[in-house]
Amino acid sequence: MTARTDSRIQTVLRALISPKGAVYLLLIVLLVSVTAIHPSFAEPGQLMRYIQRVAPIAIVAIGQYFVIVSGEFDLSMGSLVTVQVVVAGTLVGQDDSRTVPVLLLLLVIGVLVGLVNGLVTTRLKVPSFIVTLGMMLALYGGVLWWTGGAATGNPADSFRQIGRSGIHDLPVIGLLPWSVLILAAVVAIAAWLSRRPFGKTLVAIGDNPSAARFAGASVQRTKTMAFVLSSMSATIAGVLLVGYAGVHPSVGQGYEFTAITAVVLGGVVLGGGRGNVWGALAGAFALETLFTLLNFTAVPSTMRSAIQGVIIIAAVAYAGVIFKNRRAPAAVASDPPDAPGMQQATGEAQSTESAGSGATRNHNTKEN
């Protein structure tokens, strides 16, 4: 029993230090650290507010996961968030009857941006980094031209309540924000998609697109769908931010890099083929918890970008070292040329060749 318990403990520890499991250990450590500094952080109501604050970036990170695991990038997410916030803030106004039509318009915009990114990347063979970088600049430039770089629009309270309010007067937690419920729905749908043939095909394409194509997978359609999902997640985040952060051209600025950082921190390998939705979600929560801890310890907010860069480099390097070490034993186990098995086989082949040569010589002697 003791040996079995020790084996289970070792298995858990190995999982926690792996690229996929390290993010959960980091998240636990960060949550404990924040709670130690501010004990009120662990109160149920405060935790709900914390999840409400993390929900937009977590949703964007999940959308970015689908693109990165397929071997691509989406740098247009932050600008698309800004576009959706400004469009909603300008068009809804104080007319509650416009809420549903504007929401439908935002969904259409999200789908169109995703289709353009996906089709240009897959059909015209333009690297997704270039395509989405161009889309990011085009969308952000359009927003600046429209708004003049200043805050604009004042949507009705009914629209703002999507990201700001929720179900009130609940026991223990008090308020269950709509954004928490929306995040739960997005995670459930993303987890379901990742288990479906679409999700498995996406991972296979990221691992080896040529093999996936030979196996009958539609690489173009699958990758384009990943870009659409990414844009839809940015749209949902934009709707939540209208109520939580207000209407301003800088609302979504930097969200694409925050999402990439969260995804990489969650063990999703840049270049595709490895990772899961839960890791991306945990990465988003760990990243935002880290920033919360830094705020509590009076670290300047100007260090945020530098910290994101260090996290990306460290996470990619750590994953590279782990996967390299895992491949090494497999290479050793495959009998190198000087291994005993190879030497024995070589010796047998040489003996057979010598015997064959001797038989040939005896045959020639008899003929002579």
Topology:
Layout: H1 2-17, H2 22-37, H3 44-68, H4 77-92, H5 99-123, H6 128-147, H7 157-164, E1 166-170, E2 174-177, H8 178-195, H9 197-207, H10 209-214, H11 219-244, H12 255-265, H13 277-296, H14 304-332, H15 340-367
Antiparallel strand pairs: 1-2
Helix pairs in contact: 2-13, 3-8, 3-11, 3-12, 3-13, 4-5, 4-6, 4-11, 5-6, 5-11, 7-11, 9-11, 12-13, 12-14
Describe this structure as you would to a colleague.
The chain has 368 residues and is mainly α. It folds into 2 domains: 14-327, ABC transporter involved in vitamin B12 uptake, BtuC (Orthogonal Bundle); 332-360. The protein has 15 helices and 2 strands. The chain has a two-stranded antiparallel ribbon. Strand 1 and strand 2 (174-177) form a beta hairpin. The radius of gyration is 27 Å and the shape is globular. Residues 330-368 have low confidence and may be disordered.
Mean pLDDT comes to 82
For the record, the count of structural domains works out to 2
Category from helices, strands and their pairing: mainly alpha
CATH architecture of the largest domain: Orthogonal Bundle
Distance between the termini: 78 Å
Tell me what portion of residues adopts beta-strand conformation: under 5%
The CATH class designation of the largest domain is Mainly Alpha
Order of helices and strands: HHHHHHHEEHHHHHHHH
The count of DSSP E runs of length 2 or more, i.e. the number of strands, is 2
- Lateral strand order in the biggest sheet: 1-2
CATH topology of the largest domain: ABC transporter involved in vitamin B12 uptake, BtuC
Q: Main beta sheet: strand number and arrangement?
A: 2 strands, antiparallel
So how many helices?
A: 15
Question: Approximately how much helix is present in the residues?
Answer: over 70%
